Amino acid sequence: MSQGAGGSRSRLLLLAGLLLVLGPSPTSSIHVYTQREVYGTVGSHVTLSCSFWSSEWISEDISITWHFQAEGSRDSISIFHYAKGQPYIDDVGSFKERMEWVGNPHRKDGSIVIHNLDYTDNGTFTCDVKNPP
Q1: C-alpha span between 95 and 130 (Å, rounded)
Q2: What whole-number distance in Å separates Cα of residue 125 and Cα of residue 110?
Q3: For 89, which DSSP code?
Q4: Phi-psi region of 123 (alpha: psi -120 to 50; beta: other; left: phi over 0)
Q5: First vs last Cα of the chain: how many Å apart?
Q6: For residue 46, what are the domain limits?
Q7: For residue 3, how many other CB atoms are within 10 A of its CB?
Q8: Confidence of residue 56 (pLDDT cuts 50, 70, 90)
Q9: Which of 14, 28, 100, 101 would bridge 38 by S-S if both were Cys, CB 3.0 to 4.6 A apart?
């Protein structure tokens, strides 16, 4: 915790998940990389990095989905989806007006930014990448 002129500011721990998506054969797999732990301060923003590697070319049908599982919850919700060259931020839930797409699939990047962090953002974020043949 750090002390500022306006009082104390609390830090959030955001966990970014690592997900390996396998295709029909081992040569068609995608390796997805995220930071294991990400910290942010309430009211600030944080970038959730998601990079991936594939031995195949990046298809126009590539899709990237971010899921969130709140701390202490068993349920996971989809908060972002990229498909057919367009980002889709879910229009319901606590992230709807606080999320920004900063990734570029052609650069093998599926990163997002979450603005105005809140205590309720503590949890696990998972990046899922699919690159259909």
Answers
A1: 23
A2: 13
A3: E
A4: left
A5: 47
A6: 30-130
A7: 8
A8: confident
A9: 14
Residue 40 falls inside a structural domain: yes
Any domain includes 92 = yes
CA distance 15 to 7: 26
Condensed to tens digits (0 to 9), the pLDDT of residues 84-119 reads: 999 998 777 889 899 999 999 999 999 999 999 999
Assigned domain for 23 exists: no
Q: Give yes or no for a contact between 87 and 99, defined as CB atoms under 8 angstroms apart.
A: no
- DSSP single-letter state for residue 109: B
Q: How many domains does the chain have?
A: 1
The strand pair at 99-101 and 86-89 is best described as: unpaired
Q: Is the dihedral of CA 59, 69, 96, 118 positive or negative?
A: negative
Find the CATH number of the domain harbouring 71.
2.60.40.10
pTM metric for this prediction: 0.77
